[in-house]
Specification:
With 185 residues, the chain is mainly α. The protein has one domain (31-185). It is 40% helix and 5% strand. The protein contains six helices and two strands; from the N terminus they run αααβααβα. The protein has helices at 6-19, 23-30, 32-53, 79-89, 95-103, 115-124; strands at residues 70-74, 110-114. Helix 3 (32-53) crosses helix 5 (95-103). It is elongated, with a radius of gyration of 20 Å. The chain starts with 5 loop residues before the first helix and ends in a 61-residue tail after the last helix. The model is unreliable at 136-185 (pLDDT under 50).
Length: 185
């Protein structure tokens, strides 16, 4: 690569694309397996990076760690509203959503859940594991702003009162693996 500086490299790549129209597309059509392999690697690495930022590749409810089962959840239960707003900006679905998160400096208001916990929370309002419940606070303020949070960057999630039989809520730290992260304190 002729330039190590990202801005110069971007300018060089844009100039090259303008002076060699159609070359990249022809190469991609001639070598789809190489392009698909590269794109899958990029998407997987980006997903790992996003999960690390939002607490690590582990479900904050049940502790599931199989990468294939994990997804990102809108903490405040407003995923449909957020997706419709993102569609106005452009298509930010699937792995493009992770690109949007990176582009916007990983805003708070998201957490890692497994597909089962995410589905139960979205359809029933609580997870049968009893470790979390949607937090009824808006995600959006004025410009996809930041939701209220404490000084450590944690967003409290109160457990479903009847889920664990104790009737007591507890809070989970969504910002990483601290000394007591994941044990519900």
């Amino acid at each position: 690569m002729p330039h190590k500086d990202p801005a110069k490299r971007r300018a060089y790549n844009q100039h090259w694309e303008r002076t060699h129209p159609g070359y990249r597309r022809a190469w991609e059509q001639a070598h789809p397996h190489r392009r698909n392999s590269w794109m899958k690697t990029y998407r997987d690495q980006l997903k790992v990076q996003v999960f690390q930022i939002y607490g690590g590749p582990i479900c904050v409810c049940c502790g599931e760690t199989h990468f294939e089962f994990l997804s990102l959840d809108h903490t405040y239960g407003n995923g449909a509203k957020h997706r419709s707003q993102l569609k106005k900006e452009g298509s930010y679905e699937g792995s493009n959503f992770y690109i949007w998160l990176k582009k916007h400096s990983f805003p708070p208001g998201f957490r890692v859940l497994c597909m089962n916990c995410n589905f139960a929370l979205g359809n029933f309002g609580y997870c049968p594991h009893g470790n979390l419940k949607e937090t009824p606070q808006p995600f959006f303020e004025t410009d996809l702003g930041r939701p209220a949070q404490d000084a450590l960057g944690s967003v409290p999630i109160t457990a479903h009162p009847g889920g664990n039989g104790s009737g007591e809520g507890r809070q989970l730290n969504l910002r990483g693996f601290g000394d007591n992260a994941g044990d519900g304190t």
